[in-house]
């Protein structure tokens, strides 16, 4: 079977050896630091660190090709929409105006706007690799135990774990139903016109949705029969004790957040202004 669209990749590397809690705290630290600070230097350092983590994780870009394509498309679309609806936001933000290209109407390309949108793009490179790495290097049961360990109610933790666990199953069912429908003459490939492909795709999604609802009902009934949710706390089979490397990772996450807060104080705001 092919690699899941988004899920655990069983190719052990350095990140696989960390506890789920340590990895989760690291991701929260990276995301929190990126949200707090808009300093381009800090975001560039986070982006480089995320890319280095990716290189060391043994996760290949092909394992998440579809997800990376979706994220990349959204990133480009986000930048285009920012420029379309707020082409002067960078100028208003930094208080100066250096025109690079004299465009029609108010759509002049300025250094300030280009720099602002580069900062927005850096946020994607700083946050997304770390988040995807956490999902691909953490098994769903360990993910659930890590959420519970940081204080998330175990009912919510287990629900998240189930959702991630069934992504490969849904992907497999989609492939099976699609192949069955193609055998009946419903082609969803690029050879068909877009309208025909969409109509044929509905014939695939409907049984997929009904099968997913049936699976949800089965799992819910099984969990209810076993008394899930009756107790206020529960133990986890995949919960592992912290080791030195886990404590180091948690400390790094705390330092990232502290560094982002310190930069806000030093810069007198969330942005670093190179045009001042």
TrEMBL record:
The chain crosses the membrane at residues 24-54, 66-86, 114-135, 247-266. The keyword Membrane applies. Keywords: Membrane, Transmembrane, Transmembrane helix. The keyword Disulfide bond does not apply. It holds the Pfam family CbiQ. It is found in: Membrane. It is a multi-pass membrane protein. This is Energy-coupling factor transporter transmembrane protein EcfT. It comes from Brachybacterium equifaecis.
